[in-house]
Design goal:
74 residues; mainly alpha; 5 helices
Amino acid sequence: MLSKNEVTLKKVALCVKTLREEYHITSSEFYIDTGIHLARIEQGKTNVTITTLQKICDYFNITLSDFFMMLEEI
């Protein structure tokens, strides 16, 4: 059984991947544009800092609030 933290990381991973796919951006394109490697984030294997999450949200032109609302819908 997954811990609460692991569930949260999986939800964050799914939200980030969904955003990237909705914008038709590859992880390579995202890295070139931002310097952020999404692979480990999208696999739910790394704990994302709030600063990194803000950069991801800025890239997709959404607020942190929007992102957390997405999390609640999963």
